[in-house]
Automatic annotation (TrEMBL):
Its cofactor is Mn(2+); Mg(2+). This is RNA ligase 1. The keyword Cell membrane does not apply. It comes from the Eukaryota.
Length: 268
């Protein structure tokens, strides 16, 4: 699914910080969890009309021009360095104890030193849309992260799974979406990157963050139509890429997303 979201979506429930080790991040001494209390900042009129969905957790990507051509950008948040993180963890622990004491006394405060507390970012890094700026300087969020993006270079090993979802020579992206007028079926198709500029997408796969997306009911129980037309997009069906593999079976309908994975695996 493609959209224009570049920030984390606010939790519907009130979140809190507890003074216990994180289950998600090693060496993080605090845990952020959601309560069963609705967030008062949520617009309840909109909430009553909302539809609960299952999150497909991969990694967020941006499609945007770079050096005059549409390109895939990987999410890269500027994060605190070791000294900055240690200082922030100390503040989080103090804040947690203050809340546990019934908020007696002065509330602990924390202020970032933007010149010393953060790691260097890669060349061509840009901040995500909506990041707060003070005197032109991007400000970290409540967790100390500054959301941003880096362009995915053609021969990058670090972003090899990102590159498997695009063909930079042809300017194409491989997109999974709902079938038109039928939310019970999916379509996997080629889309020119130029048509996706300014949008964000979720990169999913069995090798992305270790997420077994093929077992989610949202995806695994839907038929999938392959719409990858080699003639329309000038795809070489003899090449060794997932674009070529799927173009060779254009028009095939499979019973579940795992069958697509099997087609790609068998072609190796």
């Amino acid at each position: 699914m493609c959209n224009a979201v570049q920030q984390k979506i606010q939790c519907v429930f009130v979140t809190g910080v507890s003074n216990e080790p994180s289950n998600k991040r090693n060496n993080q001494s605090f845990k952020v969890t959601a309560s069963d209390v609705l967030n008062p900042e949520i617009d309840f009129e909109d909430l009553s009309m909302a539809t609960a969905t299952e999150k497909v957790d991969g990694t967020c990507c941006l499609i945007q021009e770079f050096q005059g051509k549409p390109l895939l950008w990987a999410r890269y948040d500027r994060k605190p360095n070791k000294a900055g993180d240690k200082k922030f963890q100390r503040y989080q622990a103090q804040l947690s104890l203050w809340k546990q004491s019934g908020e007696i006394g002065e509330q602990p405060q924390h202020k970032w030193d933007l010149g010393k507390d953060f790691k260097e970012v890669p060349a061509n890094w840009i901040t995500a849309t909506g990041v707060d700026l003070v005197d032109g300087v991007a400000q970290p969020d409540s967790l100390g992260h500054t959301p941003g993006w880096v362009p995915v270079e053609r021969k990058s090993r670090q972003y090899c799974w990102h590159l498997s979802a695009v063909d930079l020579d042809l300017g194409l992206g491989m997109v999974l979406c709902m079938k038109e007028n039928n939310d019970k079926e999916l379509v996997i198709r080629c889309v020119p990157l130029s048509q996706l500029c300014g949008k964000t997408c979720e990169l999913i796969g069995t090798n992305v963050n270790g997420n077994p997306y093929v077992d989610l009911p949202t995806l695994s129980q839907k038929r999938v139509t392959i719409e990858v037309n080699a003639t329309e997009f000038n795809i070489d069906t003899q090449a060794t890429s997932q674009f070529s593999t799927l173009a060779a079976v254009n028009g095939v309908v499979v019973n579940q997303l795992r069958d697509i994975e099997n087609i790609l695996y068998d072609s190796r």
